[in-house]
Fold these 2 entries.
Entry 1:
Amino acid sequence: MELALAAAHEAASRGEVPVGAVVLAPDGRVIARASNEVEARQDPSAHAEILAMRAATAALGTRSLAGCTLVVTLEPCPMCASAMVHFRLGRVIFGAYDPKGGGVDHGPRIFEQPACLHRPEVIGGVCEQENARILKDFFITLRETRDF
Amino acid sequence: MELALAAAHEAASRGEVPVGAVVLAPDGRVIARASNEVEARQDPSAHAEILAMRAATAALGTRSLAGCTLVVTLEPCPMCASAMVHFRLGRVIFGAYDPKGGGVDHGPRIFEQPACLHRPEVIGGVCEQENARILKDFFITLRETRDF
């Protein structure tokens, strides 16, 4: 989670919503690391989780992340949670809960849908306060800067 | 829908699950066209809709597809439907319904979620039989080839 949080801090320094993610191989090696690049790529699908999972499959030379763990600073949105189903991800560990935008423990609760074909193991709320703080700080600064 | 179906046929000829999509600008011009590339890219998130929306924002030089229409041969899955929310897509027109994998009229019904922040207009079941046929034919051939 420390690596994911460092990636989130890097995103914040680039003016991105600060979310960071890493993917670990079944043996615990870090095989991918990414942060939110929506602004840099002008691509609303360039969330940290999607970028990290793409990099992980490229690193493994496979289409499946079975047995792999994705660690991310924020509860994944419904798009990223659904992508985890397609990637056959083994486990997701996330930091802060996201009652407004989350899709795992909130909203459509993607993995609890009866038609969901693959359910990663889920561990949520890890280092919750620290992971929530970076987002709060980012949006406070944004409001001050943009005079909302 | 003819263009999207042609893209789906191209996907089938490459051994991909045959789904095709196009994006139209608010003035009706086709600004992006894509088909499923999961096998070619070894990327489970490379669905036709995501690729077409990425190409469309690149073509427009913007992050938003407000006022744009995406036409796709199959009901979008929850990942693609959720991506449409992030892309602020104006309208989605889809062909065949997908009771097992769909996320618009089936499963989590992404746009009907109370927390959904943007709801594209939806028109489903357009040229349904023709769009369903290409998928059925593909899976029949696959079963015969792989001796399932």
Entry 2:
Amino acid sequence: MIIASSSSVYGSGYLEYLLPVLKKHFKNVKTLVFIPYARPSGISYDDYTALVTKAFLNININIKVKGIHEFTNPAEAILNAEGLFTGGGNTFELVNQLYKNAVLVPLKEAINKGVPYLGTSAGSNICGVNMMNTNDMPIVYPPSFVTLNLIPFNINAHYIEPVLNSKHMGETRETRIKEFHVFHTIPVLGLKEGSWLEVINNTIVLKGNHSAKLFQKNKEVTVIENETEICL
Amino acid sequence: MIIASSSSVYGSGYLEYLLPVLKKHFKNVKTLVFIPYARPSGISYDDYTALVTKAFLNININIKVKGIHEFTNPAEAILNAEGLFTGGGNTFELVNQLYKNAVLVPLKEAINKGVPYLGTSAGSNICGVNMMNTNDMPIVYPPSFVTLNLIPFNINAHYIEPVLNSKHMGETRETRIKEFHVFHTIPVLGLKEGSWLEVINNTIVLKGNHSAKLFQKNKEVTVIENETEICL
């Protein structure tokens, strides 16, 4: 699995910063099944799938992209996929559709048997134990917040440090995660834009140019340096 | 009802900017029932209630504050209250506890019969049709997102304009609200810190020094000037 904080970084095209990683990750993949359920800015499944197709061409990755909505049996499509990619957008709507289309279990099964998976933003949040550390607005009510539980912690994507001297009184990201730990013991990884996790079997390594922050209940926050294995 | 974006503004104490308004709003109130369920930073109900008691003394409001958790029958406490205040914190946990303690209906009933209500931040979000425009992290799973529906639109508290020249790739507040309108027709009012709504019977007036932004499905965003009645 490649679990990326964001699909793009400032000043660079969609997925562009991940090009060398994706070339390697999807080297044996000819057709990729794309999950467009998160619908960033509310775009349609077709438009989102077309955007990904174009992006892959732009970064010279020669893979045919097929949206999961193009299959009559989405669960079967996932189980038969050579490669899988869940794009970013709204995590509530993504999880809602994963439940409605009954593809959460097949997705977990496919990834567990070794199908290469890419998640960005919302598509990364769902790799955690649950989606309770998303930054997204709850624009729909999913049947549950429980997600794939493929890594032993939750992801906070687009992690950002508090803005110095801000006059805004809304909670910082760190405060929000600490509030989560009043109710739960699940660790949370704050993954900055431009960072990703490379997960091979049970080994999880932080990649990209940034450190990450690991929040654990009743513990000091830990800074994880890049190129480090994350052991809990 | 006083529906405030935030409990405080930058550089001023808790509730301080609202002092003249609260003096008038609660002028006949000797004992106020406080709802501390939103637990900002995870503080206890007792600590939160003590904080509000102290804040009222600091701003020379002589009202006895009693936390709803101090009553054996919270629904009855609300129905018998002279005044009501729901504080800010996490909207998911607030709504979760409103359902668990079965106080959502009594709360609506009390406000409808004229008991003066103050809501700040999460306590304001719950006055809308549902809580789907909160900025909070979904740290608990409430039984529903449906709230008091006492005004014909939703509140986005702590509303903030996009940061110019930001390198952060996460969605702006405006993008998130527009995503909401892909799925719903409920209007959303972006209420800036330092703004509040004064609701008397069916008249809703924007107060404070700032304008607000009204988002409606398939319409241009409307700027509402302060001291203006909001008519939908």
